[in-house]
Design brief:
By secondary structure, this protein is mainly alpha-helical. The longest helix is centred in the N-terminal third of the chain and has 24 residues. Helix content is 68%, strand content 0%.
């Protein structure tokens, strides 16, 4: 949904700028005749009118003008993915928690641990597997609350959003392998076979929820709870051990979110062919002929240092 809004905003900004430029130009002497109007141009105009109407509807709902929408679009392009932002927030908060635990400052530690729990839950909610599960749970609710074409439309929208999450995610290793099941469920929903789609949707939830990324986050939350329980007992060694475990788990997730760049090794230099003599600092000549000798300056002769005369 956000990507479609951004697309609409891009088109709106371009159209606005184009309109301003056209209004400043003098009218053209030659005008196209009806014979030059093609069918693709008519279809493009219809699509443009549809997008503009969607933008107008969005402006009515939000009360935002075109300038603020353009700023929001630009900010969305420049911002890092939510998963990266929340991972950075959780790791920075964890460092503060560890510092407070090392200093055994209970009054400082407990409020930080209370903040760490929601930060970890936000991070977990950004994971592609969690997003897929969320959309599928919504689809199940729709199947029970609505009926007829309304249920079909809402369920199809949820399934499409889940497929977009799997196909467009920047974090390939964190995406659950459920795209084929999502396609099957959506095809059944679109053909009004909800009874066939529901078992597939439940299987998608089970498969996505078992993804390793969600198992890792469950372990992270357990470590945070263990540290908080130990802090109330002032069992500082246990607190530190739980926080070290949490730090290790977040590092594993960070390795998936920001994989290390591949190391490139230079190819070894080719060995000289038979009959060639490799000379340092010189390239072999064509045809395997050795290069001409470079004249060297005469060697300087050093005289032994004479003792000073009285």
């Amino acid at each position: 949904m956000r990507s479609s809004i951004y697309l609409c905003l891009c088109i709106a900004v371009l159209l606005t700028l184009s309109s301003c430029r056209l209004s400043q130009q003098p009218p053209s002497v030659t005008r196209p005749t009806p014979a030059t109007t093609t069918q693709p141009a008519v279809e493009a105009s219809s699509e443009r009118d549809k997008i503009l109407q969607e933008i107008l509807d969005y402006q009515k709902r939000t009360g935002e003008d075109i300038e603020s929408l353009a700023v929001a679009m630009r900010q969305g392009e420049l911002a890092a993915p939510a998963l990266e932002q929340d991972l950075d927030a959780a790791r920075m908060l964890l460092r503060s928690v560890q510092d407070a635990a090392n200093d055994q400052q209970l009054d400082t530690l407990l409020p930080l641990l209370h903040r760490l729990g929601p930060a970890l839950r936000a991070l977990e909610g950004d994971l592609p597997a969690a997003v897929v599960v969320r959309y599928m749970e919504r689809a199940l609710v729709v199947s029970q609350r609505y009926s007829g074409q309304e249920a079909i439309n809402l369920m199809s929208s949820a399934l499409l959003a889940a497929r977009n999450t799997c196909q467009n995610s920047s974090f390939a290793t964190l995406v659950p392998n459920v795209d084929g099941q999502l396609k099957s469920a959506k095809d059944n929903v679109d053909s009004a076979h909800l009874d066939r789609a529901l078992p597939v949707i439940r299987q998608i939830i089970e498969n996505a929820a078992a993804h390793a990324s969600l198992t890792l986050m469950a372990s992270c939350r357990a470590s945070a709870r263990g540290a908080e329980e130990a802090a109330h007992r002032q069992a500082w060694r246990v607190v530190q051990a739980e926080l070290e475990q949490l730090d290790s788990e977040l590092r594993k997730l960070e390795a998936e979110v920001r994989p290390a760049p591949a190391v490139t090794t230079e190819a070894p230099a080719a060995a000289p062919a038979a009959g060639e003599t490799a000379v340092p600092g010189q390239e072999p000549t064509a045809g395997g002929q050795p290069p001409a000798p470079v004249p060297q300056p005469p060697a300087e002769t050093t005289q032994p240092m004479q003792p000073a005369t009285q």
